[in-house]
Specification:
- It is a single chain.
- This protein has 360 residues and is an alpha/beta fold.
- The chain has three domains: 73 residues; 179 residues, Rossmann fold (3-Layer(aba) Sandwich), CATH 3.40.50.450; 66 residues, Arc Repressor Mutant, subunit A (Orthogonal Bundle).
- It contains 17 helices and twelve strands.
Length: 360
């Protein structure tokens, strides 16, 4: 582990420190190493930073932290914050994204093109088959599958992507050093090879019930669309869909038999306006997802002109069309036309609020 990661570990290990306080510290100092070097007077300027937090910051590496460092090194855990370049771009769209993430595996730029497949742990054979096939077919288009490593629908979603040599990300509701459910340990190791395990929770955090609603916002935030495959009325799946709707992310649902409890939640989502999914193209077409892999299969080379290259340089993180127009010194109408063509080429994706994200 490097010094930066160790300092992230110190910051995240402070008892009862909130995400807001961590974010306040990182926003003020812009560098976690500076936080640990700051004197008491400067730290007290930050909203919510009291003497107890300052004490733990100054204590630095203790025996308990040394054990955590060993765990991180043994499991190849990377620790990053929203200040780092390799922080997931999709999460940067939202102010309440986790300030610190623990990652096993790798997040790559192509993971910005992601769809969440979620559903009940007590899935029917039909639900499992739908989840597996959707994941497999979406991965054919170069789309990363996001889910929660739970039994049932989540498991089949991860497996569908992996068995098709696609990428998948599992978001955990516990510390990244704990695999829950335990029977998915083998699957988790495959996910590390074909994508990543992600957690916002400090090492050693058990899979308590109240962690999962918080975890669900990351599943939604990582994705361009959320697909509820199969879920009863009382389900965490609906919580994830609420997060998606709050973020302006499209919600999809797969219809199921009207008398089956496992399908009551997804059928209700459809009644409330979720887009119906009966085939993978329903998702692709609704979101107008760029199909880079399909273009390559057809032998079509993506050629960039100078304006497109300049725009891609600007889109290292999501920015709005007004800012692009200002930096290029071009009228918004002309910029929108260029952006539209770039989206058709599969270079960028439009986000809520006329913001754009690079996905090439």
């Amino acid at each position: 582990m490097n010094n930066k990661e160790i300092n992230y570990l110190i910051l995240s290990s402070i008892p009862k420190i909130s995400e807001k306080k961590i974010r306040n510290l990182l926003n003020y100092f812009k560098d976690v190493n500076k936080i640990l070097k700051a004197d008491k007077e400067e730290l007290e300027k930050i909203e919510g930073i009291d003497e107890e937090i300052i004490f733990y910051l100054k204590e630095g590496v203790n025996k308990e932290l040394e054990e955590k460092i060993k765990i991180c090194e043994k499991l190849n855990i990377n620790i990053i914050s929203f200040l780092d370049e390799n922080y997931p771009k999709n999460l940067l769209r939202f102010e309440d994204s986790p300030p610190i993430l623990f990652i096993r595996g790798k997040i790559i730029e192509e993971d910005s093109l992601a769809i969440a497949l979620i559903g009940t742990r007590k899935a029917s054979d039909y639900g499992k088959m739908v989840s597996y096939r959707l994941a497999k077919e979406l991965s054919d288009y170069g789309i990363t599958i996001v889910s929660g490593l739970a039994k049932g629908i989540d498991t089949k979603a991860h497996e569908g992507a992996i068995e098709n040599n696609g990428r998948t990300i599992a978001v955990l509701g516990c510390g990244i050093d704990i695999i829950y459910p335990p029977e998915n340990k083998r699957l988790a190791e495959k996910i590390v090879e074909k994508g990543a395990l992600i957690s916002e929770f400090p090492l050693g955090t058990p899979p308590e019930k109240y962690n999962f609603p918080q975890r669900n916002r990351i599943i939604a935030g990582l994705s361009l669309g959320v697909v509820a495959v199969e879920a009863p009325i009382a389900s965490g799946v609906l919580n994830t869909c609420e997060w998606a709707l709050n973020y302006g992310i499209e919600v999809f649902a797969c219809p199921g038999p009207i008398f089956k409890k496992e399908c009551e939640g997804t059928n209700q989502l459809i009644k409330e306006g979720a887009k119906i999914v009966t085939k993978v193209e329903d998702i692709i077409e609704e979101l107008a997802l760029p199909l880079k892999r399909e273009l390559k299969k057809m032998g079509i080379e993506i050629v960039l002109n100078e304006e497109e290259k300049k725009i891609l340089e600007l889109l290292k993180e999501p920015i709005c069309v007004d800012e692009i127009s200002e930096k290029l010194n071009r009228p918004i109408s002309e910029v929108l036309e260029i952006l539209f063509l770039m989206e058709m080429k599969g270079l960028i994706k439009e986000l809520p609020g006329k913001r754009y994200l690079k996905i090439l």
